[in-house]
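Design a sequence for this backbone.
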């Protein structure tokens, strides 16, 4: 995608909510039936892009220009001790610019979008209290969409129906269940990878219990800063693929397997949510003797490239974003 060359302005006082006033993104139109989330204003900026595109270095420079602190929009950076495989900002980088919503929970604990909204809201409130701007940085599309559109309450789980769906996955494969979702909620099916069993099952469960597609959980009322103050890092696909392959090799060289061994030995180990980060399941299989080092690296590279592709697909839905070259 060709970058939008719209001039970017950095002026205006930090802490200003903008002429229209702040909007609670957990409930864009007001109302109290949704989880509390960040109250965005013109003191907020967003920097996103696919994995390995160079967001961290750009974020540090941009935060310095804005006099901003960084709020992470990364679903894996919340896990303590998972540093190498998540490409978490280094201690030196975090010392240069304060980072928030990083190292929140142990790797065995699940972490939800609703909890991220609450943690991000608390960070934003504290940053504003210091009179500084807020820079949201990361490439987790679900978090970005929740930040932009809010998060509607979803129905409770239906264990019996979920078990039925998981049995169907075991019998017919995830692609068959994904096809079933496509007939019920084509919008959600287009966003969810056919191998992402957890999200496919949850989407079908929501449709079954509520009678409404899960895609309707996001309100179509985006905050105006997503049309003026969201930047997306873009790279030629070949260059991005080369960066991904090199990064994965460096992760294993720098001790990813030892990091996984230590995390797995903690109470709770590495939970199913944390294992979704590319490299962790592969490192566990390597430690268990199910994969060779070469195969673990190759599969991690493959999964990371797939992740980048999904991120770019989601990010194109932010129509007003300014795409920039790293």
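Sequence:
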């Amino acid at each position: 995608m060709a970058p939008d060359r719209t001039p970017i302005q950095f002026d205006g006082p930090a802490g200003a909510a903008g002429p229209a006033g702040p909007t609670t993104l957990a409930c864009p139109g007001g109302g109290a039936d949704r989880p509390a989330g960040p109250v965005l204003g013109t003191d907020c900026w967003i920097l996103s892009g696919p994995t390995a595109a160079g967001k961290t270095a750009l974020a540090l420079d941009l935060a310095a220009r804005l006099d901003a602190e960084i709020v992470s929009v990364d679903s894996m950076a919340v896990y303590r001790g998972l540093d190498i495989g998540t490409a978490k900002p280094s201690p030196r980088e975090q010392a240069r610019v304060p980072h928030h919503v990083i190292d929140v929970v142990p790797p065995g604990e699940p972490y939800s979008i609703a909890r991220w909204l609450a943690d991000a809201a608390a960070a934003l409130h504290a940053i504003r209290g210091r009179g500084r701007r807020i820079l949201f940085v990361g490439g987790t599309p679900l978090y970005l969409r929740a930040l932009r559109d809010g998060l509607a309450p979803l129905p409770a789980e239906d264990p019996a129906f979920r078990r039925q769906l998981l049995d169907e996955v075991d019998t017919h494969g995830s692609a068959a269940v994904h096809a079933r979702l496509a007939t019920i909620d084509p919008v959600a099916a287009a966003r969810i990878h056919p191998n992402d069993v957890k999200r496919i099952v949850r989407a079908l469960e929501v449709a079954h219990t509520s009678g409404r597609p899960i895609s309707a959980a996001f309100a179509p009322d985006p905050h105006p800063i997503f049309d003026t103050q969201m930047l997306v890092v873009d790279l030629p696909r070949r260059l991005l693929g080369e960066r991904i392959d090199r990064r994965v090799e460096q992760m294993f060289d720098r001790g990813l397997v030892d990091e996984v061994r230590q995390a797995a030995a903690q109470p709770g180990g590495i939970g199913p949510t944390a294992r979704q980060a590319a490299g962790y399941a592969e490192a566990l299989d390597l430690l268990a003797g199910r994969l060779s080092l070469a195969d673990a690296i190759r599969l991690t590279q493959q999964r990371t490239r797939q992740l980048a592709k999904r991120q770019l697909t989601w990010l194109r839905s932010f129509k007003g974003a300014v795409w920039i070259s790293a």
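The chain has three domains: 23-153+220-236+315-325, 159-216, 238-308.
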